[in-house]
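[agent] plan:
  1. take the single chain provided in the ticket
  2. run structure prediction with default settings
  3. attach structure tokens to the ticket
  4. add a short note for the reviewer (M.T.)
[agent] executing step 1
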Amino acid sequence: MNDLQPSVGGSLEDFLDEIGEREEIYGEAIKRVLTWQIEAARKKQSISKSDMATRMGTSRTQVDRVLDPQNLAVSLDTLDRAARSVGKRLKIELIDA
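[agent] step 2 finished; step 3 output follows
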């Protein structure tokens, strides 16, 4: 006998679509991952936030905004400069939905 029960209802994506929050949740998840990766690279290389700001040509306050996973109002250009400041590149691609 199989202990697994069949799933009831739809997928997480279906639920998020139903409550109208799929895009917001996905946007925040993407930003959290990017923030985590940039922050991990910064710490691994012992780059201070002030040094990162200098490399990006911006202020330390802006670096704090970039590294805030809940701040979704960060441009792709700014994310790209943040990635490059820690020796990484930002790669964006379109995939089938």
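[agent] step 4 note for reviewer: The helical segments are 12-18, 22-44, 49-56, 60-66, 76-85.
[agent] ticket updated
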